[in-house]
Amino acid sequence: MSDAIREHCGVVGMMCRDEKIVSCLYWSLLTLNHRGHESYGVAVLSPDGHVSVEKGLGLISDLSLEEFHAWEKELRGRLGIGHVRYATSGQLSSKADLFADAQPVADEHLGKNLCIAFNGNVTNLLQVSEELASGASKRSDAHVLLRVLLEEYVKNDDVTDVLRLICEKLDGAYAIVGLTESGELFAFKDPHGIRPLSYGFSDNVGIIGVASESPALAVNGIELSEELKPGELVLIGNDGSIERRIIKGMCEYFCAFEYAYFARPDSKFQGRYVYEARRELGRKLAQRYSEIARNVDVVVPVPQTAEDAAYGFHLETGKSVEPVIVRHRYLKHRAFIIPAEQRKLILLHKYNLLLDRVRGKKVALIDDSIVRGDTLGHIVRMLKGAGAREVHVFSTFPKISSPCFYGIDMATFQELIGFNRDEEEIARLLSADSVNYQLINDFCDAVGTNNLCLACITGSYPTPYAQKLAEEGRRLALEGKRAEGRLFEVMGGGRCRA
Ligand code: SF4
């Protein structure tokens, strides 16, 4: 991914044998940090039933040793949850806003307490928040979601019933982890199973956990884990009891983009490493576009998520892979400290080229996906400027022509280079000799499942409110009207923030 799309969020929930849960949460969040760079946080249930929350801005690796030791001292308990965040809802403008929106979030209502962390996006948030009692915090989707849960929890403290009820109210994607005041840890995946959430345990290490991706469990000694099913609840009692049940399961629509871009290569979905799927995606591209693939001299991956696919392309064609594009490692571009124009400038400067490797050559440039195309176009022009004879772009993900309303930050039609344009026009905009997208069938074959959300490719959304938003947004975009923000925040009566 060469575009400035950033990750969404990562969640973790764990129970361990001793009272050192905060250390387990810390390591899991480090492992999930690629999913959210803006803030991090942990919440731990103390032995006396009190939930304490600690948060910070930026990467969790920025936490100093002193701060970590303070956490260890303050947050003693066996159950806890954690979160890393990139905002796909709520305010982006200041550090104070980002800190206030950082998760986990805890609240009290009529004497009942809950604490949650959440990954995904509730598309009908505006409607849901309007139904809440006055005085409820509506800062971000996590605050609204927590309040919706709490308003049911005060009437009935059975978590299963509460989650069943909110499934009826919410449209969107949500993987939730939470702590109840009676000492339970719960994890729940939305009925379509759009966002990832894995569960596992290790008797040897004495730990039970759920996390957005399996390496966040493996880092704490849980080697075997499995993906939760759509609508599945995992309920872990303070005594270590485990209950798993499907509350409301529907046909699975797992986010296809996780395979192409978001997830770590060492994550496992449906028992298969993501890097294997990516390698296969590269193979499929080389097979599908065999004529162009045969004629290139060199295969160049856009770092870092296209490297496995480039290797697959090489396996199929025998063409050598050259790591021509070097990414500046220490470039930081946090949304809250850098104005938009500067951010663009930084993005254009984040790559350098090994020039003599491409001079006079025909290049197969492999990217995992093409969203806006700004940076990819810049790379193509850099390659041409370095003397590349031809540059053929290959995208392991099919053409993205519709927004995502489920937690990936590409939420308008106009920002997408693939909206209302054919491949020829896109190639021209990118200054490339050709643009070759993965076909949907090849994508499904490569990742080994058809149970995928492909809404950003097909325009067909698994949930009804998202479909409605998309149809209205598409109509406006075709009329040339620009949305002044993410469609789910600006359509249907104003921004989400109260
Ligand atoms: S619309 Fe695209 S990015 Fe969003 S959940 Fe579906 S597949 Fe993933």
Q: What would you say this structure looks like, in words?
A:
It is a single chain. The chain has two domains: 9-252, Aminohydrolase, N-terminal nucleophile (Ntn) domain (Glutamine Phosphoribosylpyrophosphate, subunit 1, domain 1), CATH 3.60.20; 272-490, Rossmann fold (3-Layer(aba) Sandwich). It is globular and about 70 Å long. The chain has 498 residues and is an alpha+beta fold. The chain contains 18 helices and 24 strands. The strands form six sheets. Strands 3-2-4-1-10-9-11 form a seven-stranded antiparallel sheet, with helices on both faces. It binds iron/sulfur cluster. Iron/sulfur cluster binds at residues 194, 255-257, 404, 406, 408, 453-456.
Q: What order do the strands of the largest sheet run in, or round the barrel if closed?
A: 3-2-4-1-10-9-11
Radius of gyration: 23 Å
The overall average pLDDT, rounded, is: 89
Calculate the terminal CA-CA distance, rounded to whole Å: 34 Å
Total helices: the number is 18
Strand-pairing-aware structural class: alpha+beta
Task: Give a count of the beta strands, DSSP E runs of length 2 or more.
Answer: 24
CATH architecture of the largest domain: 4-Layer Sandwich
Number of domains: 2
Could you list the spans in which at least 5 consecutive residues all have pLDDT below 50?
493-498
Which ligands, by name, code or SMILES, are bound?
iron/sulfur cluster
Per CATH, what is the topology of the largest domain? Glutamine Phosphoribosylpyrophosphate, subunit 1, domain 1
Specify the overall morphology: globular
Strand content: 15-25%
Biggest sheet architecture: 7 strands, antiparallel
The CATH class of the largest domain turns out to be Alpha Beta
Q: What's the helical proportion of residues?
A: 25-40%
Considering the protein shown, what is the CATH homologous superfamily of the largest domain?
Answer: Aminohydrolase, N-terminal nucleophile (Ntn) domain
Oligomer: single chain
